[in-house]
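User: Okay, second chain of the day. Same drill as before: sequence in, structure tokens out.
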Amino acid sequence: MKSTDDPAMRAAAVEAARGERPFDLMISGGTVVDVATGELRQADVGLSGGLIAAVMPPGARRDAVETIDAGGAFVSPGLIDMHMHVESSMVTPATYAKAVLPRGVTTIVWDPHELANVAGVPAVDWAIEAARDMPLEAIILAPSCVPSAPGLERAGADFGPETVAGLLARPEIGGIAEVMNMEGVISGSPRMSGIVNAGLAVKKPVFGHARGLSGERLAAFISAGVSSDHELTSGDDLLEKLRAGLTVELRGSHPYLFDDFVEALNQLPVWPQTLTLCTDDVFPDDLLGQGGLDALIRALVADGLSPVQVLQAATLNAARRLHRDDLGLVAAGRRANIAIFEDLETFSTRHVIVDGKVIASDGCFNAAVSDHPADMLRGSMKVEPLSADDFSVKAEGARVEVATIDQPRFTRWGKAEADVQNGFVCPPDGATLISVVHRHGKAAAKPKTGFLRGWGEWRGAFATTVSHDSHNLTIFGRNPEDMAVAANALIECGGGMVVVADGKVKALLALPLLGLLSDAQLEDVARDFEAVRKAAGTIVDWELPYLTFKALVGATLACNAGPHQTDMGIADVEAGTLLEGPVLRQVF
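Assistant: Same drill. Structure tokens below.
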């Protein structure tokens, strides 16, 4: 991607703007979405090389090597996804690019911390190289939380301040990725203070993860130097974050909150300049069927927000946050990244232009992009086959009191009594087993098992190596025998997701690249993922909005408030405690 500061490119654009040479490409007859003024205005747009050279009254110029008829369509800046993880879509960066570019997304801000938590700095290097030659611009961030809760979980690497500072010194790294260790920042721990200050020292933005923070704790988090958040929990939370001065990356992965967000935003007297949009996590079947950032834009507009304002959040506001004056507007001198939308309701694209070249038409990608070699991402499952006994909790006596992890997502501590038979704890009534196995070769690969309550009545087992954020092998179930079958299926295929019932594999998605990605086509990954998601719904009954399939991949997120099972035990980041096992005491 050629820099817009290239003198020859600038000189050619100046000549084209003066009428001394023809435009390379002209977009005629369209309605320009002016996200600076809020206007929808008829205008023609002339491109020279990778730049917009002029935005003119309709018919003012006809000298162009090529002309696109945009009559009846809307000419918008290319969309900017302000916080996302390619890994969440379980495909390679090239495959992801081919999926989102035809939908109008021309820039992504990629936090590769999922890759980094498995394979460290070499995985970040791979992400940089994989993104280098894509027509989709990827602003890659330095992962700040590898692991997300140090001392409470083990990942495949450990990024301290020196490692993060080394990454920030690279020109390809655009800032510090979401700072998830909220307690470490608020308490002023040397590790997290060093990481945040490394970003501030080189004047690169520090992106945040402020889930549940409010009042004094939110102020402390921001005062440390963190300047954004995407972990919104309600409309009131959105307003508090905006009023606190954070750049908000309103995300598409929690649609049950959209009505609340829209109501809150429509109460404001002025549209916030610090509101941007992001996808965060998009599963492969959703990416294939609904899209990414475009799906969020459609939903917000359908819920009652102004389409021009929503586009402003996804373009100009994002560009300003990134200090990228070359992006975010259809205006002279800006990079020629443009999405031509058929309308401002469906946001289906007629054409997508990147660096002055048409790379997609009518939703079809027509540019060349190839996968970066990925052999170094294979062989990440360092776990020997497991047995049913490995998933049982040992105890003495006939009855014990155990700690439980109650309710999905917003977890809390609980207690229950349970019988002991043949030296193993019988799960308490209504409890589900959760086991986490360290899989990165940094410690013994033995399950650490706890008890979940509020997770429904299970009729089988589910295992996954997509398990935020350390991505250890995580298994859910009521039956240790099924859990062993599920775990061994993933050990054999190198990672992924699997559903087991009655001792048999019902659905399997293989993710052999770090246990997170597949090098198959999106259609194939989406098909296998959808089969796993459907099969999971046959072994447990979902209860919206919290007990959902997505809760399975976030159950080990130890940086969030409340107890969480990790490869080291039951962790509580707020209390700073770690229970190696769930047995609290012998009752008799």
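The mean pLDDT is 97.

User: Thanks, on to the next one.
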